[in-house]
Amino acid sequence: MNPVRWGVLGVAAIATSRFMPAMNGASSARLVAIASRSLDKAKAVAQEFGVPRYFGSYEELIADPEIDALYVPLPNHLHVEWSVRALDAGKHVLCEKPLCLSANDVLALIAARDRSGRYIEEAFSYRNHPQWAKIAELLSSGAIGAPRAVQCTLAKRFLDPNDIRNNPDQGGGALYDLGSYTISACSAVFRRAPKRVIAAIDRDPVFRIDRLSTAVLDFGDGHASFTVGSQSGPSAWATHQQFSVLGANGWLRCDFPYAHGQPSPCHVYVGDHTSHGAFETMTYSFDPVNQYTLQVERFSRHLRGEAVPSWPIEDSLRTLRIIEALFTSAASGQWQCLAG
User: Fold this and answer.
1) pLDDT tens-digit map of 311-337
2) Of the residues 97, 134, 156, 195, which is catalytic?
3) Does the domain spanning 129-293+319-337 belong to CATH 3.30.360.10?
């Protein structure tokens, strides 16, 4: 079958450092065009990556009839506008996380998806790593019993005042940038929304973004807790990551669960009814893989009608409702209930 023809909307660092290089390893996808609001930037990036077509406006790329799917790596506050435009123009969309900044924005995207008949997904590259298929298998098989609690940590240092992650008007802060990962991981375990949530937030006095956020999600018969920090962890360009599940009859944990800045080996450790303390009884090891290549390959194969995993943006709707409730909880100091 012919490869899916991709365009990239913008020349953000995530596109040029992660997504575009990863395209070379995806047999079901071909990068054919890129756009920037600066024609010179678009031309320079196109020449660097050998992209045949480039445009000096987003509108021109969206209107290109030779493009099947668009990758949207724009600043968070622009995701909705340009994803809707792309869907309405008949393009499929892979949009960087966080997909939106409010639950209402996700509803607008769902409406655009439904009227256009095109597909849109939030670009969580970590979901494509084979360790998460193993985690799902372990949980569904009852290897550790029913999940009772999840603990997550994700931290990185973003100190550049020009980084959009430090701009509250553009969706900056730890909850949007890092909390979206941990909430997504909790949802992968419990597969439903929590009944109520509570949060504590520390804000940067200059940037005004949440730089340290801790939350508890109450699922009734299970709990999840996470801490995300945008001014914590390694001083180098790296992240500190933790993910663990306490089951009724065991546990599992990971040493590199979320986004891999570069392909790295990782492990899932499992303790069953025979384990003692924190010593695992089984280790599953994974060789380095490029999560971004796996993501674009899977997404492209989904568009071609192949039976591969997919994640509808209703998952993103749940995430945004949780984030909104956590911000409200931190401001009020009280638990916040989630409808349904």
Assistant:
1) 999 999 999 999 999 999 999 999 999
2) 97
3) yes
